[in-house]
Design brief:
This protein is mainly α. The protein is 56% helix and 10% strand.
């Protein structure tokens, strides 16, 4: 494990060279190192991210209902979205891992990528304040916020509505398999609507696998004859 934080690479991501690298070193340290890690900063950054996005949604979509804004927020602050932003920035290349986690491919884990970007937001908030954290978030989420012309519907909610509208049994989810180390697990989940249809999908978390399975089953149901 390398102890030195690449402040040059970090500066390219956050837009400045920090005077005190300590909070950023913590934000980019995985628990597998056996040292203080990013979990507390991740907790903080998750709340900062949610507040900034919620504020932007409230301002940009003045006619949206509470439910519509909640749906938008759910997608924009989701682990999948956070992971996509982090991977685009190649943030996990800066994360310090223990040998086992590094060898297990921790750098390529969507879960770790999502955690790291939230921890980085937490570090920005503590180091430079709310305005700096907000600027960073908007630099990487702005187009996604504006791009949501209609409130997205979560696949699990859409599948539930499909079943109710046709007086079918509600969807049932089941974990089929769990593989991989604790820091980078893979889940396979099956979802079914009675004996009508069934689909399986994988994800880096139980929630992600359920979402992917619901998406797959919806696609299958839409292809069925009425």
């Amino acid at each position: 494990m390398s102890d030195a934080l690449d402040t040059g690479a970090l500066a390219e991501i956050i837009g400045f060279t920090p005077d005190d690298p300590a909070p950023y070193e913590l934000a980019l340290t995985h628990g597998s190192t056996g040292r203080p890690d990013y979990q507390r900063l991740e907790f903080l950054g998750d709340r900062v991210l949610g507040l900034v996005i919620a504020s932007e949604l409230y301002t940009r979509f003045p006619t949206a209902s509470e439910g519509e804004m909640s749906s938008r927020l759910h997608v924009l602050a989701s682990g999948a979205t956070c992971a996509a932003v982090a991977q685009r920035l190649n943030l996990t290349a800066l994360v310090r891992f223990g040998a086992q986690a590094r060898n297990d491919g921790g750098r390529y884990s969507d879960n770790i990528a999502a955690d790291a970007i939230e921890a980085l937001i937490g570090a920005l908030y503590l180091d430079r304040g709310a305005d700096t954290a907000r600027r960073f978030i908007l630099a990487h989420w702005n187009e996604m916020i504006d791009g949501q012309q209609a409130a997205p519907k979560h696949p699990k909610a859409a599948l539930q509505e499909w079943a109710l509208a046709r007086k079918r049994r509600p969807p049932e989810y089941e974990i089929v398999a769990r593989e991989g180390p604790d820091h980078a697990p893979r889940f396979r989940v099956a979802v079914s609507i009675g004996k009508l249809a069934r689909a399986e999908a994988e994800g880096a978390s139980k929630q992600a696998a359920e979402k992917a399975a619901a998406t797959a089953l919806l696609a299958e149901l839409e292809g069925m004859k009425p």
